[in-house]
Amino acid sequence: MTAHSAHDHPLLRRRDGHHARVTFEELFFDLVYVFAVTQLGHELLHNLSFTGVVETLILWFAVWLGWQYTCWVTNWFDPETPRIRGLIFAVMLAGLVMASAIPGAFGERGLIFAGAYVAIQVGRTAYLAWELGPDHPLSANYRRMLGWLLIAATFWIAGAFAEHWTRAGLWAIAVACEYVSPMFGFRLPGLGRSKTRDWTIEGGHLAERCQLFVIVALGETLLATGATMAKAASWNAAILSALLATFLGTLAMWWLYFGTSSKDATETITHADDPGRIGAYFHYIHAILVAGIIATAVGNDLVLAHPHDPLKTPYALILSAGPAIYLLGSAVYKKAVYGVVPTSHIAGVVALLLLIPVAQAADLLVMGWLTTAIMLAVSVREGRMLRKRRLSGDARQAAH
Description:
Elements: H1 24-46, H2 50-76, H3 82-100, H4 110-132, H5 139-160, H6 164-180, H7 203-231, H8 237-259, H9 262-270, H10 275-305, H11 313-338, H12 343-358, H13 364-399
Helix pairs in contact: 1-2, 1-3, 1-7, 1-10, 2-3, 2-4, 2-6, 3-4, 4-5, 5-6, 7-8, 7-9, 7-10, 8-10, 8-13, 9-11, 10-11, 10-13, 11-12, 11-13, 12-13
């Protein structure tokens, strides 16, 4: 698509070479997802088993994909035009219904959850395909996308009528359809495939939207910490120690993302030869990063609520897995930004996994401090590496 052809529709954003700002409509839209992330954390906390993890993972991907596809829409289309604003608000309403149905999604509210989700994905895409008309350069992309979302919709709806593990299987297929199809350009027989170079994205805007979702997830972690503290019968030394451990762990996650790579990520995606491809990578990576934050929030809740409880295996697993998933996501993110995998992150993952067998001799509070100590060590190491990168970059600029 040429630069001019992307500007010939009244609903599309104007591309003037400047960083497209995130609008108040988009920030308002994100508030529904604060609630959705909270719901997912509660679900996992109250169902900390293999079944609970599988269910929460499937529901998380649905939440993420609904947000991700809408994020791409607001990158292309102007959210301040009345019709796109109306579309965002309609998606918000359906998103609120979907998020409210999360606790019963694998029970009696399966059809409500699936119906609301399908309404978001299919309804939004069909409306935009209709608005673009048959001849716009973006239309073919939206027709292919709609095709894949309709295929996924049949699995979502069929799953809602099935029993537990069958429902999980059908919904997992639906998630795969929506998550994997952009990787091969939504290829469909008779419709061809989209190329990432056709996706005329504004890189800075897309990076900022991902960054804001990470803030939403980290904010929810702090909200959960505060809510658990508020419910504690007495604020003794163990509770205050647990608060400090969980807060420092959250701070380490913030630093690893915003202190060491987020500004450089904006530069990477903005100056890429193929911003669409890098933008797609960013979305895949952030699904892992935010999943790690949600799992870590569950671990924080356990530490605060029962600091002196002995460590059951599920507790040990969630306390190690949350930060480990986050570090893996962060490592892939930094590979996309800098072209190298940080060894500090891999060392951190190994250390977290080694804690699991040791955990049998500890209580929740000790385990909470051990995982936080590992995250802080990785953060300090990354801070040093960042300074080295910047110094070497300044030296190269001075040489030129």
